[in-house]
Amino acid sequence: MSIIDIEIEEVRKLCENVVPNSKIIACTAGLVRVDIQRNQLNRQVTVCIRFPVTYPNQHILVELKSKTLSEKFLNRLVSLCEKKAQEHLGKTQCLPVLRFMQEYVQENPLCICFDEIQALRKDLGSNASPEQLKLKQKTSAVILTAKIGAYFYRVKAIVPDDYPEKCVDLRQQETNLPAILLRYLNGQSREIARQCVEAPLRLTKGKTARDFKPVPSLYKALKFCLEATCAFPNEHCPVCELVALPENPNDLEIDDSKDAYVERVYCGHLFHQGCLKLYLQEPPFPKYGKLCPARQRHVRSDTAYNLQGNENLNTSKNEECGTRLAHDRWVTNTKIAESRWAQKQARRRELEEVVDFLK
After folding, report:
1. Tell me, what's the pLDDT at 10?
2. Which end of the chain is more exposed for a tag (fewer CB within 10 A), N or C?
């Protein structure tokens, strides 16, 4: 018997016993095909092995296939398998390579989101420190720290076993941004992740919930956190046109009754509370309420944000926001606003008359 025949017989007898979670699909001198999975179909890898003419003095030829793992990841893994095979030149190589494959997939559960992690590294830029994107393979977690100036936002994303059918679980968020922005980042990122795996309540004509297919949620959710965090310190108050947040986070106003306290309205823009109050309390008072005076629409409006990155959102610098100003703490109809303005002016005239009389 040739060494190939001996190895084929060895694979048939031992593979499914010595390589956990493996299943032999084909085992001949022309092709050895084995499915390996980490207890979940989403991380299943099909290993195709062929024997070169000069085997075993030349390493086996490995091809990897997967419905969920990316081509880039599989190509890198092929190189690792070939290196493993080279360590066994002159001997049987199939079982060592198959064991290596099973152990690698078992020890690296984040392989399911390899492309998303690479995209995040690219978005962070070449100047980012290793601490800004940490991978925790044992807990299947990705920890992102977005930094801009002295501000930061940190979030831990847990990748579930049935990813991408289930979305990432975002936890342990930390920041030195204002509390209102922390709530926004947390809520919106979770909503983005949810929309990746749940069909919308309102479907387009001709579509049903069965037509919806879950998409990976890690990159979409963390990219939002990264972009929003980096944009906040550079945003200007539309009224006074000064930077909304102070350069030093220690100078943030935490008293929500102070004018310097930062508010975020539904159209996405940041206002100093004093500026927002002044703008809402002064005429004119349009019938349907005041519009945001910002010079352009916000790319992260609560109503306009979408998972495709707002390609359809016009952000021309020459087009004003024009969105009706709305905020939980500033819900005032036109009649009430006019009445308050009239009372304020009447009181002002009375004070002026008193001053004139005293003179």
Report:
1. 85
2. C
* pLDDT tens-digit readout, 329-352: 655 555 555 565 556 656 666 676
Q: In terms of domains, do 41 and 114 share one?
A: no
Same domain, 227 and 261: no
- Beta strand segments in the chain, E: 22-27, 32-36, 45-50, 61-65, 133-136, 141-148, 151-158, 169-175, 262-264, 270-272
Q: Which is nearest to 32 in space by CA: 43, 71, 40, 55?
A: 55
Residue-range definition of the domain harbouring residue 188:
110-201+210-234
Looking at the fold, whether 226 and 239 belong to one and the same domain comes out as no
pTM greater than 0.90: no
pLDDT confidence band for 120 (50 / 70 / 90) = very high
Q: Do 277 and 244 share a domain, yes or no?
A: yes
